């Protein structure tokens, strides 16, 4: 049966047999870098196409359908176009920071990839504070956005960056609280242990209604954190042209664009790992036959299936809901999501102490 | 000089270089960004020392909180994009003096701490266990005179955390997987035993609560008698802004 | 009661959001309802909606007769002077002069397909056609004469 675990193990053995430990580490790092970049490129192409197709079907349209069969090469053509374009740097901008900002955003997205378990025993860095690492490092990306907005020397950019900053800083709280509620249930921050604790059922089902509330709050908060509609105040096309990346063009714009989709992928994979059991197959109670069939599907397929389900959910939000005003946005966070998630955390703690979950 | 040392020295050079740039640049926003890089470098140093929890907290508190706050206040000041005038000579002289003094002070500390532990290459279990949990104060006093307390608290669940003490990274601690779990830190934080931190923890929480209530009181508008002049939407804004600053 | 209001707010919000998601999700799972037309490919079996408006035409019957009396109601109704009606005087066998249509000039390049002229016409002489492939190489070709050469007004239309 196909498994990524066997692949990595045999590679490790082969390298250990031929090289000394330092070089094994270096070669493995290089392989990981290559794989991460390849994953980014593929994800960028696939997710942008998926977004356009989903958007089209929700608006009773067809979407891209000219380049290649069903338009599947549309995003590749767009990428080619963006590579060809000139990367303009405006005259009045702070040139160093202007050119640095897209790379900051991109590097943060790459760092976030490290602790995510893609399949059974297939993880770049099984760090013991996995969840905390993700929420800590993701807070750096707001700096990239602020930097881009400020250095463009453009009112729209600055306004977009300020909005984005306020939004990310506020929604981090409720996202963090809903993550903590699962950490309370699991008793560990290590992502692999969180997955392992869902062997007999996903937390979404095991945690009763509080877990479902936490899941909903998590999804809302990460939608806001990735600056996507209905929380796309930062780029609000109709009022700020393009928000913090108004002045960017060519490949530098493409980096922002790509980072947005990578961030969606990462928050969805964190959500899938915490609430939907990561790569764990779906198991139902004592149905031995059913569970065996589910085990036969490779764990990587389970993981990517769940992640893409969540991504679809977030795209569904985007193409359904109208954009929030800035005061509505802050009201939603501070008057609704935060109190509810605090109360919910108390409930979950009580549940974990009394052992009421399955 | 192995790979680990190379990584350490490059991180250290990164921290010092960006720190130097932060104080010498004439553009205030760039100064904030260099400070940010310096703080990220310190987090990287914590990662190198394998104290991942401290590293993550460093990023959450400093990068996600403090620097964002600094950047916001820069955005709200006037003429933040202009070059600042060069500081006066007198100020420069004092700054250099202060820097030299700080350098000498830390040199003194390192001189005191280094030879007793690292050069002798003590195994990690000889290190003081009860006093080494606070990563900030462990390096100087803990390693010099703390070894007498080492035996009496050896059953403490937090005893495995000797790697939180800076400058004590030996080859054993680098490879072994005996690092403190986050739950150990949490238990230590709320334990009421001799080496627990429940009192400082609660005092700090009360301080933060007081700060938050103070912010709300300052930002809250008392319902004025005269009918509202501005739009009703603007009244709610300041409260949320300050709350956000405090909590983050 | 504050708490009750709060909870009902949350409940109503969630419910209305779910209603919206049900609509778009319904469209997503029913691709048969897609209204996009694959234009150059489906040119032979174009499926235009009933109320699609392409250009103004004048109706002629098999005897090459139209129903336009030259009353210029359409010209007056047009918001951007698309229509210009040139009239002449027909002399009836009894020697009575009668106003009649000479040329119905229609500037397609100015037309916004607003349908006001068709609504204004008292005799139903003009209507909106569904032809939309109007591109030509010369702008002058867009100025059209709607009454066919040699056509005359139908008997009995006043």
From TrEMBL, chain A:
It is a multi-pass membrane protein. Its EC number is 7.1.1.-. It holds the Pfam family NADHdh. Its main location: membrane. InterPro entries: NADH_UbQ_OxRdtase_su1/FPO, NADH_UbQ_OxRdtase_su1_CS. The chain crosses the membrane at residues 23-49, 96-117, 129-150, 171-191, 203-224, 253-276, 296-316, 336-356. It is found in: Cell membrane; Membrane. The keyword Cell membrane applies. It catalyses: a quinone + NADH + 5 H(+)(in) = a quinol + NAD(+) + 4 H(+)(out). Keywords: Cell membrane, Membrane, NAD, Quinone, Translocase, Transmembrane, Transmembrane helix, Ubiquinone. It is an enzyme of class 7 (translocase). NDH-1 is composed of 14 different subunits. Subunits NuoA, H, J, K, L, M, N constitute the membrane sector of the complex. NDH-1 shuttles electrons from NADH, via FMN and iron-sulfur (Fe-S) centers, to quinones in the respiratory chain. The immediate electron acceptor for the enzyme in this species is believed to be ubiquinone. Couples the redox reaction to proton translocation (for every two electrons transferred, four hydrogen ions are translocated across the cytoplasmic membrane), and thus conserves the redox energy in a proton gradient. This subunit may bind ubiquinone. NCBIfam families: PRK06076.1-2. Belongs to the complex I subunit 1 family. This is NADH-quinone oxidoreductase subunit H. The lineage of its organism: Bacteria, Pseudomonadati, Bacteroidota, Chitinophagia, Chitinophagales.
From TrEMBL, chain B:
It is an enzyme of class 7 (translocase). The keyword Ion transport does not apply. InterPro entries: NADH_UbQ/plastoQ_OxRdtase_su6, Nuo/plastoQ_OxRdtase_6_NuoJ. Pfam families: Oxidored_q3. It is a multi-pass membrane protein. The chain crosses the membrane at residues 6-25, 32-49, 55-76, 88-110, 197-219. Residues 129-170, 226-248 are annotated as: Disordered. Its EC number is 7.1.1.-. Residues 130-151 have a biased composition (Low complexity). It is found in: Cell membrane. It comes from the Bacteria. Residues 238-248 have a biased composition (Basic and acidic residues). Keywords: Cell membrane, Membrane, NAD, Quinone, Transmembrane, Transmembrane helix. It catalyses: a quinone + NADH + 5 H(+)(in) = a quinol + NAD(+) + 4 H(+)(out). PANTHER family: NADH-UBIQUINONE OXIDOREDUCTASE CHAIN 6. Belongs to the complex I subunit 6 family. NDH-1 shuttles electrons from NADH, via FMN and iron-sulfur (Fe-S) centers, to quinones in the respiratory chain. Couples the redox reaction to proton translocation (for every two electrons transferred, four hydrogen ions are translocated across the cytoplasmic membrane), and thus conserves the redox energy in a proton gradient. This is NADH-quinone oxidoreductase subunit J. It comes from Flavihumibacter stibioxidans.
UniProtKB/TrEMBL annotation, chain C:
InterPro entries: 4Fe4S_Fe-S-bd (IPR017896), 4Fe4S_Fe_S_CS (IPR017900), NADH_quinone_OxRdtase_chainI (IPR010226). Residues 59-88, 102-131 form the 4Fe-4S ferredoxin-type domain. Keywords: 4Fe-4S, Cell membrane, Iron, Iron-sulfur, Membrane, Metal-binding, NAD, Quinone, Repeat, Translocase, Ubiquinone. PROSITE patterns: 4FE4S_FER_1, 4FE4S_FER_2. PANTHER family: NADH DEHYDROGENASE UBIQUINONE IRON-SULFUR PROTEIN 8, MITOCHONDRIAL, NADH-QUINONE OXIDOREDUCTASE SUBUNIT I 2. This is NADH dehydrogenase. It comes from Flavihumibacter stibioxidans. The lineage of its organism: Bacteria, Pseudomonadati, Bacteroidota, Chitinophagia, Chitinophagales.
């Amino acid at each position: 049966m196909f498994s990524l675990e066997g692949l990595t193990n045999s590679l490790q053995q082969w390298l250990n047999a031929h090289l000394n430990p330092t070089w094994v580490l270096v070669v493995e790092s290089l392989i990981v870098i290559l794989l991460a970049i390849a994953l980014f490129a593929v994800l960028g192409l696939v997710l942008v196409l998926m977004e356009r197709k989903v958007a089209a079907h929700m608006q009773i349209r067809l979407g891209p359908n000219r380049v290649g069969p069903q338009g599947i090469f549309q995003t590749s053509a767009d990428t080619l176009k963006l590579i060809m374009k000139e990367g303009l740097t405006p005259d009045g901008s702070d040139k160093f920071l202007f050119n640095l900002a897209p790379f900051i955003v991109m590097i943060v997205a790459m760092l976030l990839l490290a602790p995510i378990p893609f399949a059974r025993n297939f993880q770049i860095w099984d760090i013991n504070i996995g969840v905390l690492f993700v929420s800590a490092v993701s807070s750096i990306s707001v700096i990239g956005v602020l930097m881009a907005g400020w250095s463009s020397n453009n009112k729209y950019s600055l306004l977009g960056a300020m909005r984005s900053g306020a939004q990310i800083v506020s929604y981090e709280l409720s996202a963090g609280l809903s993550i903590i509620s699962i950490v309370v249930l699991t008793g560990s921050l290590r992502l692999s242990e969180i997955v392992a604790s869902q062997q007999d059922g996903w937390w979404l089902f095991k945690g009763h209604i509080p877990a479902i509330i936490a899941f909903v709050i998590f999804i809302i908060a990460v939608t806001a954190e990735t600056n996507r509609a209905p929380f796309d105040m930062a780029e609000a096309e109709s009022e700020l042209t393009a928000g913090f990346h108004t002045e960017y063009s060519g490949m530098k714009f493409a980096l922002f664009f790509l980072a947005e989709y990578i961030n969606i992928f990462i928050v969805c994979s964190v959500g899938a790992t915490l609430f939907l059991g990561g790569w764990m197959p779906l198991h139902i109670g004592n149905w031995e036959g059913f569970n065996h069939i589910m085990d036969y599907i490779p764990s990587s397929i389970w993981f990517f299936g769940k992640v893409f389900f969540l991504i679809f959910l977030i795209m569904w939000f985007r193409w359904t809901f109208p954009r929030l005003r800035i005061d509505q946005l802050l009201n939603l966070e501070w008057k609704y999501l935060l109190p509810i998630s605090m109360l919910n955390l108390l409930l979950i703690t009580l549940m974990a102490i009394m052992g009421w979950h399955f | 000089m192995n790979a680990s040392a190379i990584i350490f020295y490059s991180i250290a050079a990164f921290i010092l270089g960006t720190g130097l740039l932060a104080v010498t640049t004439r553009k205030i926003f760039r100064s904030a960004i260099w400070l940010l890089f310096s703080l990220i470098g310190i987090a990287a140093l914590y990662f190198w020392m394998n104290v991942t929890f401290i590293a993550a907290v460093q990023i959450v508190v400093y990068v996600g909180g403090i620097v964002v706050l600094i950047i916001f206040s820069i955005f709200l000041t006037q003429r933040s994009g202009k070059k600042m005038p060069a500081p006066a000579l007198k100020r420069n002289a004092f700054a250099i003096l202060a820097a030299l003094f700080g350098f000498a002070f830390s040199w003194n500390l390192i001189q005191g701490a280094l030879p007793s532990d690292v050069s002798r290459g003590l195994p990690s279990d000889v290190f003081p266990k009860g006093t080494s949990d606070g990563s900030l104060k462990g390096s100087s006093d803990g390693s010099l005179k703390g070894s007498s307390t080492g035996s009496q608290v050896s059953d403490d669940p937090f005893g495995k955390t000797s790697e939180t003490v800076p400058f004590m990274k030996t080859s054993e601690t680098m490879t072994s997987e005996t690092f403190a779990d986050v739950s150990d830190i949490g238990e230590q934080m709320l334990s009421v035993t001799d080496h627990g931190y429940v009192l400082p923890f609660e005092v700090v929480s009360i301080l933060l609560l007081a700060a938050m209530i103070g912010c709300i009181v300052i930002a809250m508008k008392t319902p004025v008698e005269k009918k509202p002049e501005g739009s009703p939407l603007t009244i709610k804004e300041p409260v949320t802004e300050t709350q956000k600053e405090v909590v983050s | 009661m504050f708490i009750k209001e709060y909870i009902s707010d949350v409940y109503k919000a969630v419910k209305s959001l779910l209603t919206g998601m049900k609509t778009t999700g319904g469209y997503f799972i029913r691709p048969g309802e897609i209204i996009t037309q694959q234009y150059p490919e489906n040119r032979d079996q174009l499926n235009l909606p009933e109320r699609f408006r392409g250009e103004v035409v004048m109706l002629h019957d098999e005897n090459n007769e139209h129903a336009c009396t030259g009353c210029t109601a359409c010209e007056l109704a047009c918001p951007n002077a698309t229509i210009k009606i040139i009239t002449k005087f027909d002399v009836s066998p009894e020697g009575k002069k009668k106003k009649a249509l000479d040329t119905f000039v229609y500037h397609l390049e100015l037309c916004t397909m607003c349908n006001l002229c068709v609504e204004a016409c008292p005799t139903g002489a003009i209507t909106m056609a569904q032809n939309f492939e109007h591109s030509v190489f010369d702008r002058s070709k867009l100025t059209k004469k709607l009454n066919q050469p040699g056509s005359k007004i139908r008997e009995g239309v006043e």
